[in-house]
């Protein structure tokens, strides 16, 4: 059931008797903006660890323990041109416990307290708490940046989206931006976020829908000033030519990351064929990249591909010996050419389809899958049933796979080596 709490504020309840917990997600969504990405990531840290009613992590943990060990978290993410700040809580369904405690209502109240009563006063976040979370986020960003594969992926991203700085940035921001933030400035931005972001509230479980609706209506959400939903997709611009940049660092295993234009978007006419194509190319242990580049040729420690159907790109990442750069680049290209020419067996297609189906059916055992899917469905305005998804995967043909492969164009590469590249 969907209910409009205000213009741009929507409550979706997904009834299910499958789980013994109820899950609540509050998602603040806005067009991605280079200037606010880091602020939103810091807000996730602040809201996850404190509030006026729970001034430190001990008080917050005590409140969660009082709800039979409810699990709470906050974070940020990107889907195409959209940036989301999300808070989620999972609480045991009181109907399965020997208690009269209204746990679901308490969980809603907990989220409302965290969101609308942050640990702040006189127009700024609590200074010691703010400073601590700046330090924590800085350490978190630096720890990720120390991952060489992640570093190579970010450098590829910068090249692949050279015309849009917001698309280049990771969803959690940068250390440089973090240094410019103040407790007053971030609090002011938070008030703006509360007033202008689109809000999607998803509740999943065995619910009293009328009681849930009444509790959220009591907040008195105001209409968003712009009620047009944020765009679902960012369309990468195909350059039509391959450009590679390289860098030398002190490391033993070189990283070759490749970025392709692939104008296939979530649940469009080529989407299901693209899922099967990716599994064949590099998305599974049965793929050509895994079997031919890693196993047969022994030219890579790992080699895989992934799709981003919210931005129209495909990426390949491989860990290699730097001296094998040219061979690896050539053999990766040969695997794509082979699929374009139909050089794959029907048996292999059946196996990768079965892998996709098994993964999909396994995901149905996760309550979060349903809640997140409801958010994506609302963002894209595209909904299919589980049965239809399975039917579409099973119906993908050889010609459809070849047609998707023909759409792939290599645009960018980033090569991180521990020695001068042999080129």
SSE arrangement:
Elements: E1 2-6, E2 9-15, E3 21-31, H1 37-49, H2 57-65, E4 71-79, E5 82-92, H3 103-116, E6 120-121, E7 124-125, H4 127-145, H5 148-160, H6 165-168, H7 175-178, H8 183-196, E8 198-205, H9 209-217, E9 243-248, E10 254-261, H10 271-283, H11 288-296, E11 302-308, E12 313-320, H12 325-340, H13 346-363, H14 367-380, H15 386-395, H16 398-406, E13 409-417
Parallel strand pairs: 2-8, 9-13
Antiparallel strand pairs: 1-2, 3-5, 3-8, 4-5, 6-7, 10-12, 10-13, 11-12
Helix pairs in contact: 1-4, 3-9, 10-13, 10-16, 11-12, 12-16
Please give the largest β-sheet: 6 strands, mixed
Number of strand segments: 13
Radius of gyration: 23 Å
Distance, first to last CA: 59 Å
- Put simply, the count of helices is 16
What is the helix fraction of residues, given as a range?
40-55%
How much of the polypeptide forms β-strand, as a percent range? 15-25%
**Integer average pLDDT:** 93
Summing up helix and strand content along with how strands pair, one would put the structural category as alpha+beta
Taken in chain order, the helices and strands follow as EEEHHEEHEEHHHHHEHEEHHEEHHHHHE
Order of neighbouring strands in the sheet with most strands: 1-2-8-3-5-4
Shape: globular
Stretches where pLDDT is under 50 for at least 5 consecutive residues are none
Please tell me about this protein's structure.
- This protein has 423 residues and is of the alpha+beta class.
- The chain has 16 helices and 13 strands.
- The protein has a six-stranded mixed sheet with strand order 1-2-8-3-5-4, sandwiched between helices. A five-stranded mixed sheet has the order 9-13-10-12-11, sandwiched between helices.
- The longest helix has 19 residues.
- The protein starts with a strand and ends in a 6-residue tail after the last strand.
- The mean pLDDT is 93.
């Amino acid at each position: 059931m969907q209910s409009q709490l205000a213009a741009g504020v929507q409550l979706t309840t997904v009834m299910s008797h499958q789980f013994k917990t109820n899950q609540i997600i509050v998602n603040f969504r806005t067009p991605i903006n280079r200037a606010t990405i880091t602020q939103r990531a810091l807000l996730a840290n602040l809201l996850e660890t404190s509030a006026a009613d729970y001034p430190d992590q001990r008080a917050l943990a005590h409140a969660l323990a009082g709800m039979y060990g409810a699990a709470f978290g906050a974070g940020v993410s990107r889907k195409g041109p959209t940036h989301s700040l999300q808070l989620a809580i999972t609480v045991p369904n009181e109907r399965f416990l020997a208690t009269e405690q209204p746990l679901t209502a308490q969980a809603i109240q907990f989220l409302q307290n965290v969101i609308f009563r942050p640990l702040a006063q006189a127009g700024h976040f609590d200074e010691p708490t703010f400073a601590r979370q700046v330090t924590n986020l800085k350490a978190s960003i630096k720890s990720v940046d120390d991952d060489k594969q992640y570093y190579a992926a970010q450098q590829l991203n910068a090249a692949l989206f050279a015309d849009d700085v917001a698309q280049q940035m990771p969803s959690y921001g940068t250390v440089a931006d973090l240094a410019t933030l103040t407790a007053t400035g971030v609090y002011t931005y938070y008030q703006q976020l509360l007033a202008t972001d689109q809000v999607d509230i998803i509740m999943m479980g065995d619910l009293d829908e009328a009681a849930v609706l009444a509790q959220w209506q009591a907040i008195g959400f105001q209409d968003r000033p712009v009620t047009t939903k944020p765009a679902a997709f960012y369309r990468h611009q195909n350059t039509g030519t391959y450009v590679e940049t390289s860098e030398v660092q002190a490391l033993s295993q070189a990283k070759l990351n490749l970025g392709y234009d692939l104008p296939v978007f979530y649940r469009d006419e080529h989407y299901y064929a693209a899922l099967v194509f990716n599994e064949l190319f590099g998305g599974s242990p049965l793929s050509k990249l895994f079997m031919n580049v890693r196993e047969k040729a022994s030219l890579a420690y790992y080699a895989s591909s992934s799709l981003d159907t919210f931005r129209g790109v495909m990426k390949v990442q491989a860990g290699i010996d730097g001296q094998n750069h040219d061979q690896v680049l050539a053999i990766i290209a040969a695997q794509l050419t082979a699929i374009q020419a139909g050089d794959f067996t029907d048996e292999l297609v059946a196996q990768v389809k079965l892998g996709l189906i098994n993964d999909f059916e396994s995901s149905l055992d996760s309550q979060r899958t349903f809640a997140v899917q409801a958010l994506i469905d609302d963002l894209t305005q595209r909904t299919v049933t589980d049965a239809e998804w399975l039917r579409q995967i099973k119906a993908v043909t050889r010609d459809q796979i070849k047609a998707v492969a023909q759409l792939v164009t290599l645009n960018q590469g980033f090569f991180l080596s521990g020695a001068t590249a042999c080129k």
